[in-house]
Amino acid sequence: MKFFVFLAFLIFLNVAEPFALDCDFFETWFDTNLIYGCWSTILRTPSTNTVTSITGVHVIGKSNCDVTYLDIRGNFELPFFPKGIASFFPNVVHLLIGESMIPALYGDELNNFPHLERFLFAANRPLTTIPSRLFEKTPKVTSITIYFTNLQRVGHNLFKPLNISQLQYLILDDNLCVNRRASTQTEIRQLIGDLQELCPYPDENLQLQITSDSIVCRDEKIIIDGLQEELLDKNVRIGFLENELQKMIIKNDELKTKLYE
Ligand SMILES: *[C@@H]1O[C@H](CO)[C@@H](O)[C@H](O)[C@H]1NC(C)=O
Is 55 in the pocket of ligand 1 (CB under 6 A)? Predict the structure, then answer.
């Protein structure tokens, strides 16, 4: 009995532990603009993936709302894309993340960054897939850099929400399926066209689309085949089938399941 009380206490500690993003705030020139940013290193892997507070001392006269540049590279063990950042920094224009161990992007990571123009996701080996929805809520994106990952699949509609005429560069160096960069309109359009062949994502719509708080799938059978065990075992582990071969397990204690059709 004592052991279980102790165990419950440990679990409580784990759940209650906050996730503070520790910022070094700075001002710097980018092109011809003076921008205000946070550079952050997460010293220890947090037990929750949602940022609960920001620490660090602002430059005089500045506040969280002035932050347009956010650099969270160099958190070498970080096993997830931190959630909830936009509730502290709603005006991020430049988002740089990487040198981390984020296993997957589910497509909703950028949803709360409507002002985003530059996205860099780099040196994150475990990444294999970029779903079509990633830029759905960030129509102003003009610069994309994704390099040094195990990327194999790119959603066919990834660039659909963007105005391709406004794309300035697309750097996709040193990924498993693509090692190219483009910086002119012609090159960019060529690369976007070629991606479907280089990094095909067959049956993306049949895959389970998992976000951190929902699971959506058009084909119920896949859910049943793929998730039965995990759903029965509510041990906060949800699995899904990728290409019906590769099974990925994600662990997320906030996960709720939402099944459509
Ligand atoms: C896309 O960008 C071009 C160049 O800036 C602009 O002329 C065009 O109106 C934009 N299209 C849309 C749909 O916003």
Answer: no
Cα separation, 119 vs 240, whole angstroms: 27
What is the whole-number distance in angstroms between the Cα of residue 168 and the centre of ligand 1? 13
Does residue 24 sit within a domain?
Answer: yes
φ and ψ of 51, to 5 deg: -65, 130
Query: What residues make up the domain containing 244?
Result: 204-251
* 163 touches ligand 1 (CB under 6 Å): yes
> Is residue 209 predicted with pLDDT exceeding 70?
no
- Residue (of 105, 174, 183, 93) closest to 141 by Cα position: 93
Which ligand 1 atom is the nearest neighbour of the CA of 163? Answer: 1
Residue 119 near residue 95 (C-beta atoms within 8 A) = yes
**In this structure, are 155 and 43 located in the same domain?**
yes
Model confidence pLDDT, tens digit, residues 29-65? 988 889 999 999 877 778 888 999 999 999 999 999 9
pTM (predicted TM-score): 0.77
- Say if residue 67 is in the same domain as residue 153: yes
Q: How many folded domains does the chain comprise? A: 2
Task: Show Cβ contacts of residue 8 under 8 Å, excluding neighbours closer than 6 positions.
Answer: none
Residue owning the nearest CA to atom 11 of ligand 1: 163
Last residue of one domain, picked from the residues 157, 179, 198: 198
Q: Is residue 13 in a domain?
A: no
Q: Is residue 187 part of a domain?
A: yes
Does ligand 1 lie within 6 Å of residue 87's CB atom? no
Q: Which of 117, 159, 166, 189 to mutate to test the pocket of ligand 1 (most atoms within 8 A of CB)?
A: 166
